[in-house]
Amino acid sequence: MRALLSSRWTTLGLLCLVIAALPLVFPSGYYYRVAALVWISAIAAVGLNIFMGYAGQVSLGHAGFFGIGAYAVAIGPARFGLNSWLCIFLGVFLSAALAWLVGRPILRLRGHYLAIATLGLGFLIALVLANEARWTGGPDGTAVPRLTIAGARLMEPVTWYWISGGLLTLGTALALNLENSAVGRALRALHDSEIAAALAGIDVARHKLRAFVIAAVYASLAGSALALFDGFITPDAAGFLRSIELVAMVVVGGIGSTAGSIVGAGLLVTLPQILAVFVEYEQIALGLIIMVVMIFLRRGIVPSARRLIVRRAP
Amino acid sequence: MTLLVAETLGIHFGGVQAVDDVSFAVETGRIFSIIGPNGAGKTTLFNLISGIYRPNTGRILLAGEDVTGLPPHRLAAKGIARTFQNLQVFYGMTVIENVMVGRHLREERRLVPAMLGLPSVTRQNRATRKKAHEILAFVGLDERIDEPAGALSYGDLRRLEIGRALALEPKLLLLDEPAAGCNPVETAELIGLVRNIAEQGVTIVLVEHDMRFVMQISDRVLVLDGGRMLAEGSPEAVRQNPEVVAAYLGRHGAREAGYARG
Q1: What is the pLDDT of residue A110?
Q2: What pLDDT, on a 0 to 100 scale, did the predictor assign at position B260?
Q3: Quick one: chain A helix, strand, coil %, rounded to 5?
Q4: Which residue in A181, A199, A204 is closest to B82 by CB distance?
């Protein structure tokens, strides 16, 4: 039972099943849109979980990379006439390069200090996006040219449901593979004891940097997907609240669990939609639910559920 | 052959000279113990040898090569492994995964094959797991390999750390108080295990408080007091050294001990 629950094939199989089966129960087209938003957020959360959950580091500015990905596909085609597909990769490259450059000095910091440094990085990116109005359209945001395949413009929520679902499946598979490799073990080891990891021959600084760059790449891809899906982007996508939301997805779902990050993303994206019936009390209800989850399922939803099942099983 | 040489090692923290002018040499395949009262600088000396601190003076030679000031992960690559007085177990991992981490340097560590989950990575995982299983059998922990490390007893966690260190296939194994917190049965088993490791040609340097443990197992003993070397020699010679007795029992105790010997 334990082996079955912790197998990467179980996670991957369940994810494929859910993505394939959900449309069967959708009462209207609107649900495709919400689900696509879940998949897109989940991509960023799965990436952030590699940095936070596997390696045990903290980033409070991760939406910054999300913003870079989003604005890459907005600015590149509109201002420079570049191909949107190319711009996705440019965004990824830019995010990875920035994460690598900034990560080298700041990943020496630990705990609260690292949190503040990444917070600063996030603020910086959001500030640039909001202030360089000439390029970014400023705080009001900017339109994003749609992605085209063979002349067809991709804008239907149904289309994006499948694109983002496919991307999430791929991202999840890569993250799960990483977890069960020498690199993944190194990340999880330095999470528990940097000193013991170093004495086992692990280059701690290098592996932290790797995890940071991978997480930045995931966030950038998710950002590009959101911008192309919505056709419009504002600097809020890179803002502090988005960063906190990403951290909340990872923690609520279960830090260190890839499946948990997806569940967390599902919860944090759909709850505000469901709670909209409370109108102005929506934020309070959301906050309360997160608090209750964390009090009763301290390890996060997925790891807690897994423990429960293992304990009940004969 | 000499494996480890420490030459006039010294380090100070602020005004405190924690280790001062310590020199010694350890022969390959021998068990070398460092003893001394609390605060004598034993663990600091260990941290110097394993690269956690950089010495202010002196050098460290491993198999004739100067390794002074190398960071811990580079020293690991040169063949130095260690365990910790206050356990440093990877509690988020299973028992066997802890030992698999010790194989890190023997594994392919490129990112892209790992993320793609290529067949070579799967094969490597299988090989690493098999090797880790063998090591766990050697340290006597092969029954609960897939349980979380935290489920093990204290004595078993000490073995797990030794197993993780052995997974590195080290030339030099540093054991920081391996018997601390172990009951007499566990200690006796530990003596057997450490002897087995030494018989396989691994050189062992250990810090230990348990005198019976040290006297039974060591080929040579180094006594530290206040960061300085007090004596170095065979267990027998060290035991009878009046300065050592004085350091352990105090001046008055030494006089009493002297009477007792007649």
Answers
A1: 86
A2: 57
A3: 80, 5, 15
A4: A199
Of the candidates B93, B111, B117, the beta carbon closest to that of A188 is on B93
CATH for A36? 1.10.3470
Which structural domain range is residue A206 located in?
2-312
Q: Closest approach of chain A CAs to the CA of B32, in angstroms?
A: 20
Residues A199, B81: C-beta atoms closer than 8 Å: yes
pLDDT value of residue B257:
60
**Nearest residue, CB atoms, B90 vs list A173, A177, A193:** A193
- Residue B146 structure tokens: 């897939």
CB B107 to CB A204 under 8 A?
no
The label of the residue with tokens 């919400």 reads A34
Mean pLDDT by 10 residues, chain A (314 residues): 76 96 92 96 98 95 97 95 95 98 93 93 95 91 90 89 97 96 97 96 96 98 97 94 94 95 95 85 84 89 89 76
Number of domains forming the structure of chain A: 1
Asked if the model's pLDDT at residue B254 lies above 60, the reply is no
Query: Which chain A residues have a beta carbon less than 8 Å from that of B107?
Result: 182
Contacts of A197 in chain B (CB under 8 A): 90, 101
Q: Do A199 and B91 touch (CB under 8 A)?
A: no
Q: Which domains does chain B have, with CATH numbers?
A: 1-79+170-262 (3.40.50.300), 90-167 (no CATH)
Query: By the 8 A CB rule, do B101 and B94 touch?
Result: no
Buried b (16+ CB within 10 A) or exposed e, B87-116: bbbbebbbbbbbbbbbbbbbbebeeebbbe
